[in-house]
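Appendix B: complex inputs.
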Amino acid sequence: MATTVAPTTLGAAVTRVEGREKVTGEAAYAYEHEIEGAVYAWIVQATIASGAVRRVDAARALRLPGVLGVLWHENAPDLGEVEDGELAVLQSRRVAYRGQIVALTIADSLEVARDAAALLDVAYEAEPHDVELRDDHPKLYKPPKVNPNFETDTEEGDVDAALARADVVVDRTYTTPAEHNNPLEPHATLAVWRDGGLTLYDSTQGAPRARDTIAAVFDLPPERVRVISPHVGGGFGSKGTPRPTAIAAALAAKHVDRPVKLAATRQQMFAFVGYRTPTIQRLRLGADAGGRLLALAHEVAEQTSTVREFAEQTAVPSRMMYASQTRRTSHRVAALDVPTPSWMRAPGETPGMYALESAMDELAIELGLDPIELRARNEPETDPETGLPFSSRGLVACLREGAARFGWERRDPTPGARRNGPWLVGTGVASSTYPARRAPSAAFARALPDGTFVIGIGAADIGTGARTVLLQIAADALEVPPERVRVEIGDSALPFAMLAGGSMGTTSWGSAIVRAIEALRERLAEHAGDLPPEGVQAQADTTEEIKAQERYARHAFGAQFCEVRVNADTGEVRVARMLGVFACGRILNPLTSRSQFIGGMTQGVSMALHEESVLDLEFGDYLNHDLAQYHVPVFADIGDIEATWIEEEDPHLNPMGAKGIGEIGIVGTAAAVANAVHHATGVRVRDLPIRLDRVLAGLAA
Amino acid sequence: MPHVTHFADVTLRINGADHALHVDTRTTLLDALREHLGRTGSKKGCDHGQCGACTVLVDGRRANACLLLAVTLDGVDVTTVEGLADGDALHPLQDAFIEQDAFQCGYCTPGQICSAVGMIEEARAGWPSAVTGDLTAAPALDDDEIRERMNGNLCRCGAYANIVPAIAQVAR
Amino acid sequence: MRPFEYERAADVAAAVAAVAEPGAMYLAGGTNLVDLMKLGVETPARLVDVSRLPHDTIEELPGGGLRIGAAVRNSDLAAHPAVRERYPLLARSLLSGASGQLRNVATIGGNLLQRTRCAYFQDVSKPCNKRRPGSGCPARDGEHRNLAILGHSEACVATHPSDMAVALAAIGADVAVTGPAGARRVPMPGLHRLPGDEPQRDTVLQPGELITAIELPPLPPGARSTYRKVRERASFSFAVASVAAAVDVADGHVADCRIALGALAHAPWRASLAEEALRGAPATAESFGRAADAELAHAEPLPDNAFKVPLARNLLVATLAELCEAR
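Resulting structure:
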């Protein structure tokens, strides 16, 4: 890197800049901005999984006092052509999945809007639906690319021949269910039309990107649309792109010529705001007696909708994780009558590494080899897929460090051998990885006459601590104390920046901020005399810098260790202890970074033991659509959980020397839990989540 | 049935101040706070008592504001997250949450803090929990007790591991 | 939610009179009713608020029992010294139910009358015989992993969600009700019905009847009791199976016992056959297993919930063993 920021504030455990606002309830989320005269919209959802709306009778709804309007495909304003079919809200009578938006009611109160929705009479022409993913589904096809832009299939060497000559072969199929992001703040938008322009207070992971997409939907130049999003109550990928809720709010506001507030209900969030596709993954590992991989084949079946293709990159981590003489990865997708799947924390790595790391554990057992040693023996010297050097690769260091801290050496590998009353006890390990990338972003830096600085960038803090770490980066780049710097984010009026996703926020935004500050320093050097009242400003864009960067395989790595207790009578699984060790370049804020790691690990435990969107075959929707039925962990599910990291100097990353940390915490966690459950019980659960009925069935077998 | 019978006059005492409201009988305390009184600190995460983001104190006891009808609360004392700080001085739990980084997105936070305020009082009153070994003894608020007693507050960001020490540092 | 009128009852008689209007329902803590009204499952035209009626006290009964007013909150009952000391199974059942927030608001009467959490019942866009009699039961061929294995019918395979009701069924509590025809007492577990061909009726209560109190008889002297709940997450979730048991062991034999099972049927399930097999039997794992088998021999699991049979067996055996060996 051309310039590296000298850390002063960076590396310090700075508490969150917006902490006070959040603990006092002052922080305003999308639905909470005070706009005079705002009214309420409510979404009406399709009750068939495939077919068309035949007729909408709004008479009863419109007769309710307080109802301002009802919108459906026949009276909704026409929208522009959009790439994302989910955003073509009320543009056709087609129903592509149960729960799709078919109408909106608008009223002067929330209560009346909801009642009007219940009174709306929608008649359908139902067609048979096809909603169940199977690995022999006739509709499985090869998508042109997988998310975001990876090759669909790869093949190196003769995998079949290598499997035939391997001393040990593991050939297993693992499945993961559909999972819903469920940020605690529902997808919400407050839409205001003024003089033909549109302002949206929206819960989004990227205001500038959302602005561009929404402007296209409404056939407006981007400068007529503004998206404001100072605080976001979680997203985990589901607020990465604009959702139909934002479009619906804007349509409703246009229809009644009033500001409109709209939030998805928790139940509705199981339909049209994205989710993680279910996966069926066949893993074949062939190894010689010494544990060196001769073959690695990872073949995935998953689903998308008929509205938009989303093909998750589930097998992609198998392309770079371990050395293997031969390798095959493939993705097949079936377009079903289901809601469109989308990003959910570490798409690709999360389900893919569950399968790969479970299979590695099974292989270690077959070989009679310690699972950490097996991984160490398959450590590649360069990226197995591209041959590029790794900018840094801390996997084995993390495994070794974690083993020492966790007490791995004392582990007896025999499954089902430790018992404490009714509780069987076991430990497991798995690897983590996530790409370390940057995306082009722009920022401005402004020096004011009073000696303070303002940084502006269209970034988002969805709970990652972005606002805080960007302040630290800016302060160190300016070489001033953070008290003299203000960072403005969460507004599309600020310079265009990468959305909060792909663990690319800090690295992308931080790079742009550093470059803007460098440009500002140059301008200040040229400036003579006092600064003008509006200050002196410079802006920078990292597009060219990123295009020109050296080619390296850049990835973060980690190791997950887990101890579980499994009740031999009831099959209940409880995670007693977890440790994650990560290699993510320089850690910029140990306080918020640890929270990101632990948060990811907590979601990984959730994936392992709890999360499962249950598809109803008869009706075609996700049946358990609330937080009483779709379980995420409660406090008592998360015991002693700790995250730490190794020092990693990597000069090939960015001016901060950091890798993204938002997603790696979830990767590998589910495998670590599953491997620990096997160690505790001898039962290998290959279908997530590890429910008590599955464990009981295994214990009885 | 005339439309007017579905409305009622109610006086809500919020953070010590009386607010006279003419509300739809269907209006929940949560919607009354958020949509009628401009008190948006109490959050709507599920609207069905399943997430705890709307937790407030009703006559000193924690409750889900989303499941209480405003019309039933005439004369009842409601404390929301906006009522915890003493002027500029934050409530000790609010300070502890910042210090321990006990939140990420912040959306569950007001509910977590209100719930913890109520929970600490319950424990001080000697109430047992599902993990209390001896039901007849006064419970000690160890980490397992805190975890069990905070069961009604979900944190999707996964800040549980930081919320427990934040509460513990105030409660013990 | 449909519009409704609201009225606060001054006393029981006024409440009973007020609820006689068509479409009227009692509102107590509302933690389940308001939830169901938002879903459109319940659509009362009028709510009669009984949460502030004066029956909110816990009194000692002559002979060692307790009388619990129906408006007592779940948390207050669980924290009451007499309950913690003399009815651990009741205290533990309450504490294992719901969340701290919900227990602070939910009343004892309302707890007994909460509706099933079957997903189809809660979704008005789907058929459900309990919600719309005659519309069908999609759970039988659909998702029923956590539904009934005992006493279900063609029409309904739902389970009752209350933990407390399971303890009360084991205790053999009496439920005091007042209705248009006067006051009467309903013994537990007789309050809740099996679905038969009228799954819309959860209980034997007549229209307009209001629960005013629950009376607990004393447990057998020397009995130890507990409530154990198996669930998918460590707290704040409905049971997959539960057991409330009180056992009195003398000279290594079971002198007396009371057992009820939860989350297995449309009603809390008093395990009379297990009790019968256990009384007088040696307090051993073999006896516990035989008792469990005697009860569960009548289980009729559906394709996806057969695991509940061994689960309930293991749970019952483990709970009895814990109660017997701990003395």
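Strands of chain B lie at 7-14, 17-24, 55-58, 61-64, 77-79.
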